Amino acid sequence: MSSSAVRIAPASQHDVPLILEMIRGLADYEQLAHEVEASEERLRQSLFGERPAAAVSLAYVEDVCAGFAVYFPTYSTFLAQEGMYLEDLYVRPEYRGQGIGFALLRHLAGLCRERNYGRLEWSVLNWNEPSIQFYKRLGAVPLDEWTRYRLAGDSLRTLGEEIG
Prior knowledge:
It is a single chain. With 164 residues, this protein is α+β, with helices and mostly antiparallel strands. The chain has one domain (3-163): Gcn5-related N-acetyltransferase (GNAT) (Aminopeptidase, 3-Layer(aba) Sandwich), CATH 3.40.630. The protein is built from five helices and five strands; from the N terminus they run E-H-H-E-E-E-H-E-H-H. The protein has helices at 16-29, 40-48, 100-114, 129-137, 153-163; strands at 6-10, 55-61, 64-76, 81-91, 120-122. The chain is globular, with a radius of gyration of 17 Å. The N and C termini lie far apart (53 Å).
């Protein structure tokens, strides 16, 4: 299948159950299902509420959703320009190798171009060699000199209390 047979569409509130299904599929693949706290209500609020935190694009093959991408704007002080962060990219196992991931990334690159964004960035798990090789074939480069950090849960709440 060529990536031209893939239709990319923005998600709407009606797609929330499908988005949650895709999130759970991604979490299973990444062996992180135990970390999923998302619910339909939280997704409805965070993606389609008063202040949407991210956008979702769905990839369809005929009438079946085969994959999705979740992304949001970023800002680079060095470029003095907006960019895009790809939070999640997932293709259902039975649709992998058919150009769907490529179609989603091409779609996001097109959005970056339309919006005059300077960067499209994402993270990949170190063990995910198939994805790493796919990204390298596209011309993406790893930023090995950077280490990503995260504050969450009790650590985040504690720090917020100390300075709040």
